[in-house]
Amino acid sequence: MSQPTVVRVGPLMPFLEDALERMYAAPSLADVGSQTEGLTVAVAGGGTVIGAAEMDQLPALRAIANFGVGYDNVDVEEATRREIIVSNTPDVLTDAVADLSVALVLDVLRQVSAADRFVRRGEWAAGERYPLTREVRGSVVGILGLGRIGEAVALRLEPFGAKVAYHSRSPKDVPWAYHASPVALAEASDVLVVLTPGGADTKHLVDAAVIDALGPDGYLVNVARGSVVDEGALVQALEEGRLAGAGLDVFDDEPNVPAALLGRDDVVLLPHVGSATVQTREAMATLVLDNVAAFLAKGELVTPVN
Ligand code: NAP
């Protein structure tokens, strides 16, 4: 058999791993040892870091196809310096992630998960009443990072009666109120939904000042990346009653969730499942395969980021 050209880096979903093995006899980076000369395309999942060290291991590398719209796991600056092009999987996951973001907004306000636990603990049967909750209608939902997913979340929440506001680094051509900073947006919002990219530029964009601007009746929903929120400041604000609740799909040190959050009924904790539906994960895998095929045929990627 001829020398493989595609290499798998880190764990991938079985559908994608099987296709890469079947179509390209793609080995795993962990197994190739020093046999790297023909490996020009790397395929990686969102949780797998590809930095200078991994690029050093693959001297022939020319393209990285990343499984995920966020690509903060790849050192794109270093890749660009080495003339390695990088792709992500935009658009195909927007609906699924927006749906999950709305689910978190509804859950933190109406306490679906916490009320479910109340029933299971037998407290309803014992005659207890569940406390009243908050509703979306009339709430100002601030979207921090009004991109593809942020806009889809805003459009979904308007029919619920939410008023939408947003902050991105630049105003967009949308009918919603623009706020010039995360603090200004948080001050105007009842619920802040974070949907920026991760990485160094957005590290702790949601800090103690933003959380305090949201205030004791405010809710934080983070579906972006754990790095965007100062997790320590978030835990402290919840413990001190300076924030009403939080819905979190992403964390600083996944899969580890701060122990202080695990016993709290005012937080909803999800295991990074924003795009995790059968349909969307297959669509993402197909787009990764399209990127690999386009690179091998034409030296170009379908959805490049650099
Ligand atoms: P996108 O279309 O690129 O939107 C990101 C938006 O964030 C842009 O409109 C950008 O607007 C804004 N932004 C970037 N840097 C910012 C900053 N420093 N301050 C404020 N706003 C900033 O990306 P998308 O497809 O909507 O995806 C957004 C992110 O969601 C991904 O990067 C990923 O981290 C996360 N995500 C999570 C999951 C999950 O499973 N939980 C799944 C998919 C995606 P400006 O350029 O005007 O600032």
Strand content: 5-15%
Order of helices and strands: EHHEHEHEHHEHEEHEHEHEHEH
Largest sheet: 7 strands, parallel
Would you tell me which CATH topology of the largest domain applies? Rossmann fold
Radius of gyration: 21 Å
Count of individual domains = 2
Query: Could you list the spans in which at least 5 consecutive residues all have pLDDT below 50?
Result: none
- How much helix is in the residues? 25-40%
The overall average pLDDT, rounded, is: 97
The CATH homologous superfamily of the largest domain is termed: NAD(P)-binding Rossmann-like Domain
CATH class of the largest domain: Alpha Beta
| Structural classification | alpha/beta
Measured between the Cα atoms of the first and last residue, the distance is 33 Å
Strand order of the largest sheet: 7-6-5-8-9-10-11
Overall, the morphology is elongated
Bound molecules: NADP nicotinamide-adenine-dinucleotide phosphate
CATH architecture of the largest domain: 3-Layer(aba) Sandwich
Our count of helices gives: 12
Strand tally: 11
